Amino acid sequence: MTIPLKSPNPQARYRAVFRCINGCPGDHPLNEVIYHCPACNDLLEVVHDLEPLRMTAPDEWKDVFDSRFMRTFWPFGSGVWGKKEFVCPDVEDENVVSTCEGGTNLFWAEQLGLRWGLEDLWVKQCGNSHTGSFKDLGMTVLVSMVKQMRHEGKNIPAVACASTGDTSASLAAYCAVAGIPAIVFLPKNKVSTEQLLQPIAHGAVTLAIDTDFDGCMAIVQEITERNNIYLANSMNSLRVEGQKTISFELCQQFDWEVPDLIVIPGGNLGNVTALGKGFLMMREVGLIDRMPRILCAQAEHANPLYLSYRRGFESFEPVHARPTLASAIQIGHPVSVKKAIRVLRQLDGAVEQASEEELAEAAAEADLTGLYNCPHTGVALAALKKWVRQRKVGKKDRVVVISTAHGLKFSRFKQRYHAHELDGIESRFANPPIEVAADYDAVRDTLFRALEARTAHIATRI
User: Fold this and answer.
1) ∠ Cα 319 326 206 (to 5°)
2) In whole angstroms, what is the distance from residue 11 CA to residue 9 CA?
3) What is the pLDDT of residue 462?
4) How far apart are CA 362 and CA 379, in angstroms?
5) Percentage of residues of the chain with pLDDT beyond 90
6) Mapping DSSP to helix (H, G, I), strand (E, B) and coil, where does residue 286 land?
């Protein structure tokens, strides 16, 4: 049986604009090519007119969202565009560029919870998306707006981004779907082979630059500013609008109950900004009546937000990000830091860090329970494990870890871990193949020794 598509109040006229995060006067339409406030040069954010949204009762909105979720009504089956009125009402349906992103599964991490003493642990598998990362949630909005602007006659010859891997893959794929040229700037030899191949396969102009992400970011900003190329990095707040639907989707999947704690890895900090913004918006229109706590997890080698948190967010200083296994968050000067700090303050948020050993071991331990984690999700898992040990998480708290990318994009990381090739890491959960002679007795003896060892691993508790 097909559930009929429900509609919100037909009298409502939904509206959103760009506005300065510091409150400088002046609104800017979403189809204007602008990334910074003309008055103070700080970032902009998308601000929605809430009154039209409030013309539909919260329970009716929930029915609308449920009638659209992962169905074939274009474009509302997308987990992002099913919340179009809350995300980007300015794009006409025929200009939406979508791969039916969102709708990713909630993995009940029962076995990992048993190991760590948590009864209600979940992992939101955002990597189970078209290009294998949560970046798709924001890129569908940005590329759709570019297609809308080109439809309106604006001269936008291409879209460009700097990336540590996942953003470039997503941009390349969505531009390929839309028939729009894409340009990606990657730090040379600092992304996985899988991440490098994705933009190449999708036909993007791919430049490997001999610098780090922050160096790529500086170059792409200059290129886009001088050459009328549209910028796709998270300083463009259209990306945040798509990514904030993670919050909506989590509540929807929990029958509109709000988790107690959400753990999310942070690099350029657009993701934690989006997560918090989604919850704040839902509360403002009455969809929820309480807020979760957010824990942002950073790699110790790229931890400027953590250091600022330790100072009570009284100051923020960029750092030189050192090489980390969590390469996508090897960012020392995050562009969305002001937005992230504001959100964390509003949601009683916190920041934790994870060492290289902690993130690798946490990812591998969780893999033993049926997950398959990227190293960035390993950072979030390691931060949660530290909090559990410090008794900052209740045994019965509903905890959600946001997995930002699919582990298959980081096969080399997995291979090196299980081969004991990661410097300074014990690889306590390594499980390499066992070479054995083609002899029954040898196979039997080896097999039962291995089963005994595996049983001991399964019984491990923190």
Assistant:
1) 90
2) 5
3) 65
4) 8
5) 88
6) coil
Does residue 179 register a pLDDT over 90? Answer: yes
Q: DSSP label at 308?
A: H
How many residues are there in the chain?
Answer: 462
- Residue listed under structure tokens 């039916």: 100
- Alpha-carbon distance of 442 to 447, in angstroms, equals 8
Query: Which residue shows structure tokens 């750092």?
Result: 319
What's the mean per-residue pLDDT of the chain?
A: 94
Select from 3.40.630.10, 2.20.25.90, 3.40.50.1100, 3.40.50.1980 the CATH code of 106-120+243-315+338-417: 3.40.50.1100
Which residue is listed with tokens 């990095």? 233
Domain limits, the chain = 106-120+243-315+338-417, 438-462
- The first and second tokens of residue 294, run together, are 């957010």
pTM of the complete model: 0.94
Residues 213-270 pLDDT 10s: 889 989 999 999 899 899 998 789 999 999 999 999 999 999 999 999 999 999 999 9
CB–CB of 206/200 below 8 Å? yes
Listed in sequence order, the residues at least 6 apart from 177 whose beta carbon sits closer than 8 Å to its beta carbon are 97, 99, 143
CA end-to-end span of the chain, whole Å? 47
> 97 and 174 in contact (C-beta within 8 Å)?
yes
pLDDT of residue 1: 43
Average pLDDT over every residue of 53-68: 96
